[in-house]
Amino acid sequence: MNYNSTKGFIINWNFLLSINYSIFDLSIKNSKLTFIQMKLLEGKVAIITGASRGIGSGIAKVFAQHGANVAFTYSSSAESAMALENELSAMGIKAKGYKSNAADFNEAQKLVDDVMAEFGNVDVLINNAGITKDNLLMRMSEEDFDKVIEINLKSVFNMTKAVQKIMLKNRKGSIVNMSSVVGVKGNAGQANYAASKAGMIGFTKSVALELGSRNIRCNAIAPGFIETEMTAKLNDDVVQGWRDSIPLKRGGTPEDVANACLYFASDMSAYVSGQVLNVCGGMLT
Ligand code: NAP
């Protein structure tokens, strides 16, 4: 597109036609050139676990902006789940929040059955639900170890098993597992959490190998320091210390992580599977 002082912008159509996969759709309305953002998940159905707040809520909003119908879960925050359901529905897509414990095998299966009855399909699964119960190994109880493994790791097995049949039948699907830089690198005081997040990476790669021939992709995201309620438990000095140590000099936002999920959920990543994407402002470099 060139600029001419008398005619304004002149479109080079050959150039435009050469862009097959532009994320922008160009249209001319009333002789004015307008850019309309193309919706990358139009008509797809996504299940997002743990979306009543934080990163999950950010993912739900970005997915809805991109035309996805969103089924999401929560553990106990019924009020914020209802508020999110209303906010998403107002964006013109179908949205529903389900109270469902991702760590429970039968509840995960029932959730997927309910979503199928309500939405008719599942194209994308985002395994995002997670908790921390930090302590030095010396003080970490067996219960706190088991709880973190169950909610963070076993939930991924439960949910993936439950959607597998649908995706196999569809001969397509995208599964995204929310790991952590801590799962890649380890962290003192988080042996349970790091083990759960490292386990998710092994699970992700195995599923990618097992289901790739059926066009089902499985990838993991390893967020760094993302400012949510999970990190709000830390004191201000610790938070500032984290920000200062990150090459981009800020904590991440739920939207930063949501945009990476959008890439993995959409056909933009059609040839990407079994990968771990660090979304950490350069922290792991
Ligand atoms: P968060 O603000 O604490 O939100 C956690 C979400 O998970 C909530 O919606 C919560 O529901 C839900 N949840 C908890 N247990 C559940 C269960 N058993 N079944 C279903 N849902 C459950 O956490 P976040 O910071 O957004 O983190 C989201 C994910 O990103 C987690 O897997 C976390 O490990 C990962 N991550 C976060 C960071 C970070 O810096 N924040 C960094 C790396 C990785 P309720 O509201 O009902 O409790």
Outline the structure in words:
By secondary structure, this protein is an alpha/beta fold. The protein folds into 2 domains: 2-36, no CATH class; 40-279, Rossmann fold. 44% of the residues lie in helices and 19% in strands. It contains 10 helices and 11 strands. Strands 7-6-5-8-9-10-11 form a 7-stranded parallel sheet, sandwiched between helices. It has a two-stranded antiparallel ribbon with strand order 1-2. A hairpin with a 3-residue loop joins strand 1 and strand 2. The chain is globular. Residues 49-56, 73-77, 101-103, 128-131, 151, 178, 180, 223, 225-226, 228-231 line the site of NADP nicotinamide-adenine-dinucleotide phosphate.
Q: Roughly what percent helix?
A: 40-55%
Going by CATH, the architecture of the largest domain would be 3-Layer(aba) Sandwich
The rough form would be described as: globular
SSE ordering: EEHEEEHEHEHEHEHHEHHHE
Structural class: alpha/beta
CATH-derived topology of the largest domain: Rossmann fold
At the first level of CATH, the class of the largest domain is: Alpha Beta
Bound molecule types: NADP nicotinamide-adenine-dinucleotide phosphate
Instruction: Indicate how many domains the architecture comprises.
Output: 2
Strand order of the largest sheet: 7-6-5-8-9-10-11
Q: Helical segment tally? A: 10
Radius of gyration: 21 Å
- For the residues shown, what is the average pLDDT? 91
Ranges where pLDDT stays below 50 over 5 or more residues in a row are 1-33
Distance between the termini: 38 Å
Main sheet specs: 7 strands, parallel
Strand element count: 11
